[in-house]
Amino acid sequence: MKNLLLVLALSICSATTILAQEKTSDILQKAAEIAKTENKAVFVKFEASWCTWCKRMKESMQSGATKSLFDKHYVSVDLVVQESENKKNLENPGAQELLEKHGGTQAGIPYWLIFDADLNILKTSLNADNENIGCPVIPGEVSAFVEKLRTTSNLSESDLAIITEQFVVKK
User: Fold this and answer.
1) Distance CA 131, CA 46 (A)
2) What is the b/e burial string over 72-109, where b = at least 16 CB atoms within 10 angstroms of the residue's CB?
3) Domains of the chain (ranges, CATH numbers)
4) C-alpha to C-alpha distance for 136 and 152, rounded to whole angstroms
5) 17 band by pLDDT with thresholds 50, 70 and 90
6) Rounded to two decimals, what is the model's pTM?
7) Is 112 left (phi over 0), alpha (psi -120 to 50) or beta?
8) Secretion signal: which residues (predicted)?
């Protein structure tokens, strides 16, 4: 019986370790190292498993030509926040604090930040009216998003047009 309890306890500890997400500070440090080496910015997106708009943004960023454009100019990092109690294990420790530090607490998700390779903040997903662009889909939102990409990367005008086409909702 003692052996069975020991095996069970070790299994639970192992499962907890496996299910625990990587710390935000470690993720950002790795991203910064890659960004420095590859001369890129760091694009951080806060998301949750229940968030439809988060999934839509991920799909748009990873679709066809846009994936190669984002990969060429950014080190992309997805951080999980705001999960329900039964999915808290999906959250990255420290991600909620980073979201709060950069004005995203009341903004909703997806919320995103663009850092330089030294992790200095360049842009947030807040527009000129201090509203979260989130996953941009209407022309005004997409224009604001593309302008932030323009000023934080070397994306060409034709690259930005491809991104615009991907994000704008087709009627």
Assistant:
1) 16
2) ebbbbbbbbbbbeeeeeebbbebbbebbeebbbeebeb
3) 22-167 (3.40.30.10)
4) 17
5) very low
6) 0.86
7) beta
8) 1-20
